[in-house]
Every structure is written in structure tokens, then in C-alpha cells.
Amino acid sequence: MAIIDITVIPVGTETASVSQYVADIQKVLEQYEGDIKYQLTPMSTLIEADLAELLKLAQLLHEVPFNHGIQRVCTNIRIDERRDKEHSMEGKLKSVKEKL
């Protein structure tokens, strides 16, 4: 399993608010519930799944603002993948909390 941290940034919106685009992206993710795990944060969305699936999903999420008429979109993606042991979003948090 891998985890991506993704931020989709529509450029040229009518207002400074992008919450509607974020909501639309969350609606896309809801369609994949059961196949992926995801968590909305104040600055991005974390998604856990197989890396190949995550990369396909990242492209779908990148398209969301274009589907609403935006002409430019910048998407930032960070990928965390371990191959020496299984890891998850919950496991990463648990590990830190155990050390506190």
C-alpha cells in the first residue's frame, strides 16, 4: 500500500474560496469508498491504496476543476510507499503517538 498527499489547486477562480472544488473532489473519492481510505485535512487530502490505483485516481481528481470550467489546474502530489513492511495512515499516527 502507498499513501499520497494530494492538493488540487484551481487557478483563476472567481473568488479566493476553493471549498466547492474541494467538496467536488471529496464526492469523487466517496465513489471509491471500500477500495481506498482517504482523509481530508485543512490543506490537502491523504489517500491510501495501491500505488497504481492512486496514480489513476490522482488524474481523476486533477480533472475535477477542469470539468467545472477552470482553464488551469496545478496539482501537488507526495507519495509515501514502504516496501520493507506494511504501513497505513493509522499505523503512522500510532507510531508517533506511542513515542509521545
Automatic annotation (TrEMBL):
Transmembrane segments: none annotated. It comes from the Bacteria. InterPro entries: MTH1187/YkoF-like (IPR029756), Thiamine_BP (IPR002767), UPF0045_domain (IPR051614). Residues 5-97 form the Thiamine-binding protein domain. Pfam families: Thiamine_BP. Belongs to the UPF0045 family. This is MTH1187 family thiamine-binding protein.
